[in-house]
Amino acid sequence: MLQAKERAILHHVMFDVDGTLVRSYELDENCYLEAVYEVLGHHLDTDWTKYSYISDAGILEQHIIENGLDAEGESIRAEVKEVFTSKIACRLKNNPAQQVPGAAKFITELRRLENLSLSVATGGWYETALMKLESAAIDISGIPIASSNNHFSRIEIMKIAKEKAVGKIKVPCTYFGDGEWDKMACEELGYNFVLVGNRTRHDQNIMDFKNAKQAMEYIGL
Asked: What top-level branch of life does the organism fall under (predicted)?
């Protein structure tokens, strides 16, 4: 059910997962590279600027096309995702994910606010995103989520997440993310971008969510 049906929404807040809510960027990258190598025997190029779409689905799709593997594409996608999911589950069982400090509490605070809706938009696959959030004790129950399961384009994933939350209603959106590609997507969509961490540079920047007041100010609350 759309959050906007219950009240008049004046602002939407969207979160990335890896590196934004959960300290899982390296975990995710390592498991992804291992999965591609295990399935294809290929060492994936980790210069992410070379990829048109920075998402689990987008990076794999480009690699499949550039290596002439289109005919086997469907089975490759399924197998890489299965191996990757298994690796994430195994790593989390041995070493639970850590949330970015204050993330769970900040989301709880935002849930209490009237006239505001929330969503999660991740370039990762849905299944592993949920695993990491649960492992890090971040409750997103009832919050719409869009992922690589929905689209290979980060911009489209973000559009889908917002539409799941508020439908076709035009409301300003603030996006919390940690990557240069998040920043670029926000520029194209006209979203207010707040950088979490220091993996790129931006004038609106928080290292974590412990200073909720600063994060709220960047949203405009």
From this structure: Bacteria
List 161's β-bridge partners, or say none.
none
The answer to whether residues 119 and 150 touch, using CB atoms and an 8 Å cutoff, is no
Rounded CA separation 136/21 (Å): 9
Contact 50, 59 (CB under 8 A): no
CA distance linking residue 99 with residue 101, whole number of Å: 6
The proportion of the chain whose per-residue pLDDT surpasses 90, expressed as a percent, equals 92
Structure confidence by residue, pLDDT tens digits, 33-52: 999 999 999 999 999 989 99
Given a cut of 50, whether residue 117 has pLDDT beyond it is yes
CATH number of 3-24+97-219: 3.40.50.1000
- Which residue type, as a one-letter code, is found at position 22? V
Stated pTM of the model = 0.92
Place of tokens 């794999």: 60
